[in-house]
Amino acid sequence: MALTRDRKQKTTNWLGLGIGAVVVLAIAGSGIYFALNREPYKAVKEAYLASLEKQDYQKMTQQLSTASIKNSGYQKQEITDKYDAIFNGLSITNIEAKEVKVVKGEAKGTFSLTYKLTMQTPLGELDQNYQTDIIKEAKDYKIDWSPSLIFEGMSGKDIVLLEMEPPARGKIQDRNGAELATNQTANQVGLIPGQLGTAEEKAATIKKISTALDVTEAFITEQLSASWVQDDHFVPIKTLIDETPDLEGIGGVTFGQTTIRYYPLKEAAAQLVGYTGQVTAEDIEKNPTLKANSLIGKTGLEAAFDKELRGVEGGVLKIADENRTEKAILIKQDTKAGEDIVTTLDGAVQAKAYEEIAGVKGATVVMNPLEGDVMALVSSPSFNPNKMANGISKKDYDSYATNANQPFLARYATGYAPGSTFKTITAAIGMDAGITTPDKTKEIQGEKWQKDDSWGGYWVTRVSNVPQVNMVDALIYSDNIYFAQEGLEMGEQVFRAGLTKFQFDHQFDLPIEVATGQISNEQKFGSDILLADTAYGQGELLISPLQQATMYSVFANQGTMTFPKLLKDKEKEQVPNVVTADSATKVKEAMLKVVSDANGTAHALMSDSYQLAAKTGTAEIKEKQDTKGLENSFLLAFDGETNQTLVVSLVESAEAGQSATLLNQELIQTLMTK
């Protein structure tokens, strides 16, 4: 029996221990429950702040207490719309909640929430501090909302205003301070909707205006249908640039003024200076700092220096009452005008150079070969940048875009076979190699020559049948056969080594794109024919007119090559000893004779008033031997006395009387007597 009692006692003890454990676990469980719910406001706090950061205002209003919304005088949707209009409508982005704190509130069951929002406004970064309560409503916790949670200091039906002051865009100037791109006041044709008459009268008026202004009726109707338009408003239709349309007697038409971007040289510098245009969604995607409806540089120098030219837009973001009376300034930024860009260009030279080749496909480069200053970069045909910047019609744009002669193409930066102007380089390389000398004479019979029968039906041809030719004669008469033979005598290794010193693949440090040159398609010529053709400036050579001017600078600069520059305050960049000073001088002496000798191909440029060194060139583009192809005409000329002005000009597909030499006679005379 004792044993039995002992067992019962033990069982009872275990039972008591079990009950004690349940009590302990219950107490512990209660502690865990309270620990997990020390922040009963956490869900609403996090959802509220997250929706602010994501700018999801529909979701944000779900976290607000019904009572506070009612007390504010707003409907829930009104709050959503107000936040959306302020933050999304005014392009306020990158909202981030910081320094978030919650403490027990004074009233039972409430908590005090404080936080800071940092955000990016169109005027810069803005910090705002906020304080509100988290209150229990029914079974849930909610945010106690008031207008001060939009911005500190707001109440009632206050509004937020953003007033922007765009900066004046900087000017692009030539070396003398003349304006190449500027801001100018222009007349603007507009309509007063309330004065357009009845439906029938209005339709007839729109039709007349469409014809007079060369804009579509659909465009006019679209402008009149904008949401901001009222009967007494001025609705701009077209900015007038260099035109005076006949609008007399048309009802509802009036005139205003606006500031436009204007290009005084018009077509003469269009590809180089470029033009401005409205920011697009694609522009903003590439550069998020841009603002909608702003003007930016689209092409040329306008695009290259857009950041400097654009300046900093200023303005004020402020709280105002319902009557738009200012209550508080949230952020203010002063407007900073854009910088002026001073170039090396000479506007008068640019205009003259364009005048000479306008009407043909071509390009002209005018450069100081000693300093590298580019005084003119001209391409023809061209386009009117004033139309592009200030509202070009579809008809005018299509006339440019579909023009087979490519008016948007910058021909001065495009690669071409240089033709016979390149013989000057072959001569200098040959002299440096000890192969060529000025008086080295070759016996050449006839106008056709080939190395041997291995060339099959391929022949090198020349224009003048001169039986005895030295290097000077070969430059005067522009003899292809002489230089083909000199190239073959040098051999590929020597000739190519000399060519590489001219840095064909060098990328110029310029604010515009310029195609790099090439000697040949492959690293080796691969045949004697290609070597020979290259020696007189054809083959697979590709050199832009601007790069040609750079290479030919060695002859005005005793063998030193000067790279081009377009900014006036930029340091010059040079490569010495591209050819020896002696070779450069001897080629220059021969180029002086190309002008002074009656047989010289540039004799038409001869003047008793100045000394001119020159070389002409023709690069023929044809499908096969013994056929007539298109001819690109080139002119290389520089001042033989001061060496300070060098011209390279190209005429594509030159016809009779359209050689680069003949077309540029007045330009050369202007430059040499300036």
TrEMBL record:
Protein name as it appears in the record: Penicillin-binding transpeptidase domain-containing protein
Keyword field: Membrane, Transmembrane, Transmembrane helix
Domain Penicillin-binding protein dimerisation residue range list: 165-316
Alphabetical GO biological process terms: cell wall organization; response to antibiotic
Residues spanning the membrane: 12-36
Residue stretches making up the NTF2-like N-terminal transpeptidase domain: 45-157
Domain Penicillin-binding protein transpeptidase, first and last residues per copy: 362-655
Any GO CC annotation of this UniProt entry: plasma membrane
Family: Belongs to the transpeptidase family.
Single GO term (MF): penicillin binding
